[in-house]
What we know:
four-stranded antiparallel sheet, alpha+beta, 412 residues, 17% helix
Amino acid sequence: MQQNSMRRSTLFLFLAAWATLAWAQKAVVSGTVIDEKSGDRIVQASVTVMGGTKSVITNDDGFFTLKVDELPVQIMVSHLGYQSYQLKISAPQEEPLRIRLKPASIRLQEVVVFGEDPRELVNTAIKKIPENYSRQPELYNCFYRETAMKQKHFIYVAEGVVDMYKTAYNRNTHRDRVAIRKGRRLLSPKKSDTLSVKVMGGPVQPIQLDIAKNTDFLLNAEELACYDLKMEIPEVIDNRTQYVVSIAPRMAMPYALYFGKLYIDCETLAFTRAELTLDMSDQEKATRLMLIKKPAGVRFKPKELSCLINYRYEDGVTRISYICNTFRFNCDWRRRLFATSFTACCEMVVTDKQQDDILPISGRSSFDSRDAFYDRVDYFTDPDFWEDYNIIEPTESLEQAINKLLKKKLKE
């Protein structure tokens, strides 16, 4: 028995060494993206392998890490309002890149004015959805992260790699599903930090909030009739000029509406970006939309719900690339004098995609909107957890918070 154990140990060490070697063969490109004029770091800039499928975004420090199969590789860095920047990486880096993006300027002749009716523009863009987006099923590999802060301190971090299956955009979302490939979580062990409040969001949000696929969310005739639409100053995304249409509630409804902006590619008339903020003028309506569950005796006061939905144009097709939800709310207890502020954020970035020989995600293995991501993943343990997966790099503040939560966990 001891000999068999020795063999298993040897085999395990061999496999571990092989896995480390395989990971080491991945080429890593990293750097910080900044504004050329101001020097400010650019958050949520897209970093994409040209001619490939891999991509990531920069974190709140403007930093990114992109793992590719081999060098040389050509990457493109882009962000709303900036000229896209292309760079060829031929050899392993000795130090992180420092990429400067130039603000984009729009010449009036580049923009063909679409009449004077923004509603006509939006309706035309809706009609063109089947030809602008994928016409076949696709499987996306994504990185997902959700965090919660009590005042200015992180009390919860969960993140994972998920697969997202989407049918063609001329179909509904009934067969679109998300499955967790691997994940991990950390929760503050202090009882005074924890609050069992569940708000909308989770890994299924790219299905629910994909405005081009799930038009029932915003882009249907009945819903659009609730909004005033206005043409705004054009913008640039990925060196492509965009119409910008702002939306604002025009009537009272039984549920909360949104303020926001819709970005529409001037050439293809595809929706490329949506920025939405929930109307907080009626606290009861906002609470009904945001809050799913809370403990008895806790009073929930919503402060903000903002949504960002990004798409990327490549090879004649527009695809979803990034979604972020941010929630701010206060909670107080009837016998306490002061309320406590909380901030929760969940974001998902598409890091890779497949089109050939893919199978739908079965209902049994999919993540449901009623599920909590926390319950489906394990605690942080492995320092090499991500291996060769592409992720949104944690910010310095989040990295410090993770280390503190890990130390508290070990002291339990």
